Amino acid sequence: ALTNYAGVARAAGLDPVRMVKAAGLDPACLEQPDWKISGPAIRQLLEDSARRSGWQDFGLRLAESRPYSVAGPLALLVREQATLRAALNVQIRYMHLHNESLHLWLEEDADTAVIHAQYLGRQEQPQGMELTVAMLYRNIQQLLPEHWRARSVCFMHGAPADTRTARRVFGTRVEYATPLNGIVCAASDLAAPLATYAHLERYAQQYVESMTASAERSATDKVRHLALTLLPFGQCSLAQIARHLGVDERTVRRHLAQEGTSYNALLNQIRRELAQRYLGGVPRKHAEIALLLGFNGASVFSRWFRQQFGCNASAWGQDGGMPAAP
Fold it and tell me: How many CB atoms lie within 10 A of CB 219?
């Protein structure tokens, strides 16, 4: 996650060691690319770097400075797939080996495909999301023939004052203050053959599977990931999640209980985090937020919000802060 950070930070007039320490990270992680470090701390580091340097495009510049190989073994497996669809499915399935806090999912219909990216947390952090989406976009460009372009690149946060770097990095339409973070392309692109395919996928698969055996995700992580994916489409339920996991509802409940939580508790936690992010970002209608959180209408969302936070969503938006949970 910090590959080339030091160089970009120095170019921006920052002391990378001081910045990393201020984010609560060990400066040795700048020289240890295989260490697992705090995702929220990394994203806060990027925000602080952009603020202190005045570079609103800090995350994009960092993305430009690095190859996709920073994803390690996962990059190898992704590049050894026959089509873009297979590559994306592999990336979605194994992303936890590289980044446990990033959720990716694919949505498609007959004409359009959307590659979604999301981090959970109370606040939208533009630099980390722009870095993530730019890395994903540049990787797809490397995998496909040179003429490929997405239809658009979307961000939930507002537009920066200067979008020249974004237009240069993506080379396509960039939209801000949208309901999603991700890449929109033609559905037919998913069947495109990869230029990097060398018929070595079996060996790459075995390598990554050997890593997965010692890094199996918890039931909580799996349910959280699926809930985040299904919520905006109104399809999030315990039955639906159990179906995706290939087990019955009782099994999901049992595994979550063993980890000290429940489906309802997880769903509520996700909704609380996302609600704070949506209300703290670009202005959105409550009906839109209700849809994104999987509620059947703005009135249901409003009642839930008041129960959770002790005030209505409109009052919070006017005050500019979130009260503590009762």
Answer: 20
